[in-house]
């Protein structure tokens, strides 16, 4: 009996008793719910929507909140790999990363092991103002053969040029601003594909009035007498030639 008395007098019992008296009657609870549904629910939903919209607004510390001019200045300092990654962030960054002015100089040599024809066709639409192109060690020039603003091209140590005669012809015929051409050890480059009377050679020396230098080093299929003849005729062009010593 003492245990029962102590139980009734305990704090737990008093707390349970207070909770019991706080439970509203059934009708009062029903009226409260009706009032909430009719008066307060719509206001509650508006507050939730407003809070959601606020969370979607870009923070002042968000990179996307920067003006496009600032973002473009940052993009100009990125390498090709980083630019491609930026274009995959969202649609807005993709549009910015395709700006032609970001591709005035294109060095693909570091990516020679992964650069294929498909990758070049992917880049081609962005190269409207391309001025310097380095395709050293890469394969295929077809996709970029119509870049008309080139000043310098490097096809040194490229893969076989067999079958690319039309691409070379189109490239050197349309690039009237070319100043430097590097054809170091281009495989398949022979006197027949680059001779004084051939179309490709005619396009290089005649259609490129600003040409200052052409490098034919390690192109062992081209005879020394042809090089000497060109040097005598085109004295304003530095025609470089280095032989393989081994």
Automatic annotation (TrEMBL):
Superkingdom to which the source organism belongs: Eukaryota
Gene3D superfamilies membership: Ribonuclease Inhibitor (3.80.10.10)
UniProt cross-references to CDD domains, sorted A to Z: F-box_FBXL4 (cd22117)
GO cellular component: SCF ubiquitin ligase complex
One of the GO biological process terms: SCF-dependent proteasomal ubiquitin-dependent protein catabolic process
Domain F-box: 60-106
Pfam families: F-box-like, LRR_6
InterPro entries: F-box_dom (IPR001810), Leu-rich_rpt (IPR001611), Leu-rich_rpt_Cys-con_subtyp (IPR006553), LRR_dom_sf (IPR032675)
PANTHER family for the chain: PARTNER OF PAIRED, ISOFORM B-RELATED
Protein's name according to its UniProt entry: F-box/LRR-repeat protein 4
Annotated source species: Trachymyrmex cornetzi
């Amino acid at each position: 009996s003492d245990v029962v008395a102590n139980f009734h007098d305990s704090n737990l019992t008093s707390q349970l008793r207070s909770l019991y008296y706080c439970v509203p009657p059934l009708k009062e609870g029903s009226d409260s719910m009706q009032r909430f549904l009719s008066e307060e629910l719509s206001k509650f939903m508006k507050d939730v929507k407003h809070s959601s919209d606020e969370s979607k607004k870009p923070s002042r510390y968000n990179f996307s909140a920067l003006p496009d001019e600032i973002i473009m200045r940052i993009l100009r300092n990125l390498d090709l790999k980083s630019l491609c990654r930026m274009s995959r962030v969202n649609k807005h960054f993709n549009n910015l990363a395709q700006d032609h002015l970001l591709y005035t100089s294109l060095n693909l040599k570091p990516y020679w092991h992964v650069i294929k024809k498909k990758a070049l066709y992917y880049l081609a639409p962005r190269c409207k103002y391309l001025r310097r192109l380095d395709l050293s060690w890469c394969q295929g020039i077809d996709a970029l053969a119509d870049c008309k603003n080139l000043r310098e091209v490097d096809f040194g140590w490229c893969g076989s040029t067999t079958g690319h005669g039309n691409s070379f012809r189109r490239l050197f015929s349309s690039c009237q601003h070319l100043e430097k051409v590097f054809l170091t050890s281009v495989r398949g480059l022979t006197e027949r594909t680059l001779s004084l009377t051939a179309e490709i050679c005619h396009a290089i020396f005649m259609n490129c009035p600003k040409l200052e230098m052409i490098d034919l080093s390690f192109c062992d299929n081209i005879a020394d007498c042809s090089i000497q003849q060109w040097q005598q005729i085109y004295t304003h062009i530095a025609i470089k030639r280095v032989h393989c010593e081994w």
